[in-house]
Amino acid sequence: MTAPLLEIRDLKVHFNLPRQSLLGPRRVLRAVDGVNLTLHEGECLSIVGESGCGKSTTALTVMGLQEPTSGEVLYKGKPLNGPGAPSRKQRARIAQMVFQDPYASLNPRQTIGSTLLSQLKLHGLASGSEAQDRVAAMLKRVGLQPDHARRFPHEFSGGQRQRIGIARALMLDPQILVLDEPVSALDVSIQAQIINLLMDLQETLRLSYIMISHDLSVVEHVSDRVAVMYFGHVVEEGDWHSVFTRPTHPYTRRLIGSVPDAEAILTGARGVPDGVAIPSGRSFSPDISIRRDPGQSSEPSALVPVGSDHRVRLAI
Amino acid sequence: MSQFLPDPVLSVRNLRLGIGKRYEILHGISFDILPGETYGLVGESGSGKSVTGLAIMGLLKRPLSVTGGTIHFQDRDLLKMHPRERRQLRGDRIAMVFQEPMTALNPLVTIGRQIAEMFVIHRGMGWPEARRKAVEALESVRVPAPEERAHAYPHQLSGGMRQRVMIAIALACRPDLLIADEPTTALDVTVQAGVLELMAELCRAEGTAVLLVSHDLGVIANMCQRVGVMDQGRLVEEQDTRNIFTNPLHPYTRGLLAARPRLGSRTPGQRSRLIELDEVVNAKDRGRDMPTLITPRGPQLAPETRA
């Protein structure tokens, strides 16, 4: 196996909370508490979990938008944080982000053209008519017209805005795209178009994706590997097929079981596929389904392999 | 069989609404909701499903207004009612649950008081008695420690808890009709399942009819007996829930069903494109009425009589 493109090692992000009383104990929110993930070239790794599980914080750390408390993020073996880390400008050419709400992430007073051009200028990559040509080519690539460059964000529909968000992220030819709920703000009819576009782009540009989503049907459709996060820990990870056909961790099973699937409900064929038998003599800690206080310190068990590319954590 | 059917709780006929007469948003939609029935309205954003709910509640904001048609609630035309009468009905006989509980709840008032308000206004109770009823209402929506939670402000609750409070307020006066506009869209899937189940259970117990507005076909299948599909301001198809999934008739419905990524539909070793709506639906079929597909008072016209 080739060296991973991106490696997250024992990542911890803790936030200090205000004391509840003057002499009360210092409280810490352990948003991400020891996460290890790897992303290979051309792969789509999805992180799923409910709000507050730390999936977005993990992604922000990859983007350099959140300083980790400890642990490291390695890009092709070199650390992205700490001393000797690349500058923000260098980072911008490694990884870019596509946000959930494209309208909130585009400047309403700038035309699409100038939003896209400014990156090329800032990085000194192209200027004049060459830059214009690159903007036009990018708009075409994401399924828009070159003359859309003269328009403002409010002149586009939701689906078109997400195309612009993708174009913006791709202007500097990054290798990694972090997709934060890329289709959850869109209508069902538009979702399919954006998912198809993302899959096409991944193939033609050899991109690697880290996708954050709570929509499991989208995750299943697009991902190569899936990591399920729960209260700051990865509780199950592996190849998409093993995770979806043999979900083993109780939380993963609950997550898959709560997706309202029309046909399954109507045919009564509702049920979660059987999980993998975990090594004998071990079991899941019984309190796993009870909401824990995320501020509480914990001694998680190691991830136990249950398949060729499928690991599960017994206790957090 | 028609004589066995009860009179509908809500009967919308040829409802038109828009900005003045020139810009029409709903082009005449008709449907009925029977007592105790859960009726789903699906469609994408801009199809008019939410404004339909607001029109029934009488909460349309200028410049939007109803320009034609009737809305009968228990044989009284809501549109001909005096605003005062309508206000009395609203919250008492017809209640609504909104998508975003944080914006629908008053951030400066404790949730106990917001629930108690319903009893004071609509039942003429005194505050102390209303407060006791509010705690009972919180208990019925399974908010843990209702006694203490009654003193909490909305921001102190999680999203799922806030939506439970919304449901408690809406069902406080045991309404005959509940309008739920995307009630669980802002919630996590695991929380969503619990809230939907609770809503279904409480409405079933009281025989409350529900108009459920949603874009999520899974939620609709889970909750509704009948479904109306809306596209571009028209109700394009209406069927029993089971039929809409097994035998969709309108091209738009077929497209909508085909475009969904579905759990368990991917085959190992490959990654195929999703079907896009535009690839299956002709532009000319969008928002097109197909009169044969709409059967107001749906269950009266069972499939065999319609065919």
UniProtKB/TrEMBL annotation, chain A:
UniProt cross-references to InterPro entries, sorted A to Z: AAA+_ATPase, ABC_transp_ATP-bind, ABC_transporter-like_ATP-bd, ABC_transporter-like_CS, Oligopep_ABC_C, P-loop_NTPase
Coiled coil: none
GO molecular-function terms, A-Z: ATP binding; ATP hydrolysis activity
Transcription keyword on record: no
Principal location class: membrane
Keywords: ATP-binding, Cell inner membrane, Cell membrane, Hydrolase, Membrane, Nucleotide-binding, Repeat, Translocase, Transport
GO cellular-component term (any): plasma membrane
Reactions mediated catalytically: glutathione(out) + ATP + H2O = glutathione(in) + ADP + phosphate + H(+)
EC code: 7.4.2.10
Protein name: Glutathione import ATP-binding protein GsiA
Enzyme class: translocase
Family per similarity comment: Belongs to the ABC transporter superfamily. Glutathione importer (TC 3.A.1.5.11) family.
Localization: Cell inner membrane
Annotated GO biological process: peptide transport; transmembrane transport
Complexes and interactors: The complex is composed of two ATP-binding proteins (GsiA), two transmembrane proteins (GsiC and GsiD) and a solute-binding protein (GsiB).
Species classification: Bacteria, Pseudomonadati, Pseudomonadota, Alphaproteobacteria, Rhodobacterales
Summary of the function given for this chain in its UniProt record: Part of the ABC transporter complex GsiABCD involved in glutathione import. Responsible for energy coupling to the transport system.
Topology in the lipid bilayer: Peripheral membrane protein
Pfam families in UniProt: ABC_tran, oligo_HPY
Domain ABC transporter: start-end pairs: 8-256
TrEMBL record, chain B:
Domain (ABC transporter) ranges: 10-257
Classification via Pfam families: ABC_tran, oligo_HPY
Main location: membrane
Keyword Transport: yes
The entry's keywords: ATP-binding, Cell membrane, Membrane, Nucleotide-binding, Transport
GO molecular function ontology, one term from the record: ATP hydrolysis activity
UniProt-annotated location(s): Cell inner membrane
Descriptive protein name: ATP-binding cassette domain-containing protein
